[in-house]
């Protein structure tokens, strides 16, 4: 995002701290995703773990003006939000379910993905009982681990050594052939299951998917015969500039045509990539080993991925340290000593009252915010740059802090 975008945004008119979601960018992202759907017949679901601002779901969902077929959820509450506010298909995956989780999920989902055959065996009776009263049965699948790493950061790599996510081939083969001949299609151990799922990517291109698919097909491809669908999971950076959409479509078409299955994808970031900013205000500039600008926002509470990944978010109009005339450190207002966002440079020294705009903050930051230290959550605003209309969606206050603790 450029300083021209900043001039159009006019950050001084928004509450601070505040998330501002760009409706036009959301629509642009959804249009790119719909191109993939139209070219391949794939169904794309939005990952709520990444973006769950339900006020803009009508822009994204096929039940509104958008194009996506539904949502994937990681909990009963996400699944309920998808059913109530998004519409379309609701798919669920978690590393483990409790019985209480399953009771709630079976009221809202269309697909349930299991992380192990033990979980599938434990809950398939509940699914079968629920399906006895449904015109359209809930479909179940198994998440597999192709043991093919594409992630650069182990914390975000579902196929890192020791990962708890997905069934590895040796376990899959043992359960798939249980009670009969492994040559059957589908194998007897997969009776009652409709599909397979993998998730190996994190902010990556179609080349990483192509390599993953080759590993998946080598290990698990033969088990797709007789199943209904294949889910490629998330982490696909489809709406990032330079992403190879042609290669993605070839990957989808290959699996679709070779195995006769419906292909699903579950991107999160691709839906809301570059569709939101975090507006913040300088409260003070203190002198340490270098100037430190204290902001009314916080890495610890308002953008925790800055500390977890870690990464240095972009600030519109800033440069790398030393690139522009005045360098400083940007830090949050919490009591955490490490509440530091990063080091930047600016054309002029910052002063109290200056507005700063952090980019690409709709994804993950909004869903991960906390009220540590009693810091208030950023306000949420919609902005349509085509008409310059703004709407305050939500402000947060004392009750939001108080009521989550007792």
TrEMBL record:
Cofactor(s) essential for the protein: pyridoxal 5'-phosphate
UniProt EC number: 4.1.1.96
Keywords attached to this entry: Decarboxylase, Lyase, Pyridoxal phosphate, Spermidine biosynthesis
Pfam families, A to Z: Orn_DAP_Arg_deC
Gene Ontology molecular function terms on file: diaminopimelate decarboxylase activity
Biological-process GO terms, alphabetical: lysine biosynthetic process via diaminopimelate; nor-spermidine biosynthetic process; spermidine biosynthetic process
InterPro entries membership: Ala_racemase/Decarboxylase_C (IPR009006), De-COase2_C (IPR022643), Nsp_de-COase (IPR005730), PLP-binding_barrel (IPR029066)
Binding residues annotated for substrate, in chain numbering: 269, 305
Listed SUPFAM superfamilies: Alanine racemase C-terminal domain-like, PLP-binding barrel
Record-annotated Orn/DAP/Arg decarboxylase 2 C-terminal domain positions: 157-361
Coiled coil: none
Domain of life, source organism: Bacteria
Catalytic activity: carboxyspermidine + H(+) = spermidine + CO2; carboxynorspermidine + H(+) = norspermidine + CO2
CDD domains, per database record: PLPDE_III_CANSDC
Similarity-based family: Belongs to the Orn/Lys/Arg decarboxylase class-II family. NspC subfamily.
Name assigned to this protein: Carboxynorspermidine/carboxyspermidine decarboxylase
Natural source organism: Bilophila wadsworthia (strain 3_1_6)
């Amino acid at each position: 995002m450029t300083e021209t975008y900043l001039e159009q945004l006019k950050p001084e008119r928004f509450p601070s701290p505040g998330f501002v979601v760009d409706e036009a960018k959301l629509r642009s992202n959804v249009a790119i995703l719909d191109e993939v759907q139209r070219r391949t017949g794939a169904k794309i679901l939005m990952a709520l773990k990444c973006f769950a601002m339900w006020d803009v779901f009508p822009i994204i969902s096929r039940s509104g003006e958008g194009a996506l077929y539904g949502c994937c959820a990681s909990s009963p509450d996400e699944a309920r939000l998808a059913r109530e506010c998004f519409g379309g298909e609701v798919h669920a995956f978690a590393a483990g379910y409790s019985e209480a989780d399953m009771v709630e999920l079976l009221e809202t989902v269309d697909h349930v993905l299991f992380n192990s055959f033990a979980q599938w065996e434990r809950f398939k009776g509940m699914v079968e009982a629920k399906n006895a009263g449904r015109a359209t049965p809930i479909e179940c699948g198994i998440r597999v681990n192709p043991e093919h790493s594409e992630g650069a950061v182990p914390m975000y790599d579902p196929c890192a050594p020791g990962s708890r996510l997905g069934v590895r081939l040796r376990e899959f083969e043992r359960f798939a052939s249980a009670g009969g001949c492994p040559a059957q299609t589908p194998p007897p151990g997969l009776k009652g299951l409709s599909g397979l799922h993998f998730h190996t990517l994190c902010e990556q291109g179609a080349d990483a998917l192509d390599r993953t698919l080759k590993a998946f097909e080598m290990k698990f491809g033969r088990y797709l015969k007789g199943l209904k669908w294949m889910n490629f999971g998330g982490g696909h950076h489809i709406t990032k500039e330079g992403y190879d959409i042609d290669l993605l479509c070839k990957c989808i078409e290959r699996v679709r045509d070779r195995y006769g299955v419906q292909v699903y994808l579950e991107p999160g970031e691709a839906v809301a990539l570059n569709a939101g900013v975090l507006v913040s205000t300088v409260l003070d500039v203190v002198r340490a080993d270098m100037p430190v600008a204290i902001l009314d926002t916080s890495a610890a509470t308002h953008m925790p991925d800055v500390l977890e990944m870690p990464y240095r978010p972009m600030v519109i109009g800033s440069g790398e340290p030393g690139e522009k005339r005045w360098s400083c450190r940007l830090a949050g207002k919490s009591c955490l000593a490490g509440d530091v966002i990063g080091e930047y440079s600016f054309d002029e020294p910052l002063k109290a009252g200056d507005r700063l705009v952090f980019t690409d903050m709709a994804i993950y930051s909004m869903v991960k915010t906390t009220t540590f230290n009693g810091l208030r959550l950023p306000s949420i605003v919609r902005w349509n740059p085509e008409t310059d209309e703004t709407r305050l969606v939500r402000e947060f206050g004392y009750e939001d802090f108080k009521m989550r603790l007792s």
